[in-house]
């Protein structure tokens, strides 16, 4: 389960970064109580917190949510001092040392702003919500973020630059538009099927019309060969006429 994957990654981060629960919560900038729920697997992290966890673990979001045992690469600034407080480096094994790892993200002047970042996150959430509502196999958070990153020619979300923001925003808005257009088309197709079936049933059972008689009426009134050729407005009108006749009006 995804909750178990996230819990496992968080436990690994605590071990690798030598942090307790409170320290890890501060690194992720989330409440300690929230982290406790993630660690216990009682709550699934939202997309914002998943992004924070993936960033701290040095993973792509897709790796975090899909891999059972992802290989962590924590993004850390490592400060190594010996017992005398003198910084040392260049070896993998140290004696009498204290290792402090500090994870930071320092946005550059060309990086997207916090407001722009929130706008992209909002659009991604809209894409995912529509995917889950419409698609039988909806895209995951990781899949949407990875698609955006590939479109922006970056390997990580935080690498998106200010000059790319409008392009990124447009890409996500077009994605939303395609889903809504498909949703509208699907809903209309479903409505037409149900309306046609209702007309056929009423014409046959209540009016005693055969299919040929109904086709003749359609041709005489609309100059169309089949009920399938009627426009949405014509189909609704025919429905009203047939059911009015059904009621004896």
Describe this structure in a few short sentences:
This protein is mainly α and 249 residues long. It has helices at 2-16, 21-28, 32-40, 47-57, 61-66, 114-134, 141-151, 165-205, 211-222, 232-246, and strands at residues 77-82, 97-102.
Number of helices: 10
Low-confidence stretches: 77-103
Number of domains: 4
How helical, in percent, are the residues?
A: 55-70%
- Give the rounded overall mean pLDDT: 80
CATH topology of the largest domain: 434 Repressor (Amino-terminal Domain)
**Rg computed from alpha carbons, rounded to a whole number of angstroms:** 29 Å
Name of the level-1 CATH class of the largest domain: Mainly Alpha
Largest sheet: 2 strands, antiparallel
**The CATH superfamily title of the largest domain:** lambda repressor-like DNA-binding domains
Strand order of the largest sheet: 1-2
Secondary-structure content class = mainly alpha
Indicate the CATH architecture of the largest domain: Orthogonal Bundle
Tell the overall outline. Answer: elongated
- Strand percentage lies at under 5%
What is the helix/strand order? Answer: HHHHHEEHHHHH
Distance between the termini: 60 Å
Count of distinct strands: 2
Q: Would you write up a description of this structure?
A:
- There is one protein chain.
- This protein is mainly alpha-helical and 249 residues long.
- It folds into 4 domains: 2-74, lambda repressor-like DNA-binding domains (434 Repressor (Amino-terminal Domain), Orthogonal Bundle); 78-105, no CATH class; 114-184; 196-246, no CATH class.
- Helix content is 60%, strand content 5%.
- It contains 10 helices and 2 strands; from the N terminus they run αααααββααααα.
- It has a two-stranded antiparallel ribbon with strand order 1-2.
- The radius of gyration is 29 Å and the shape is elongated.
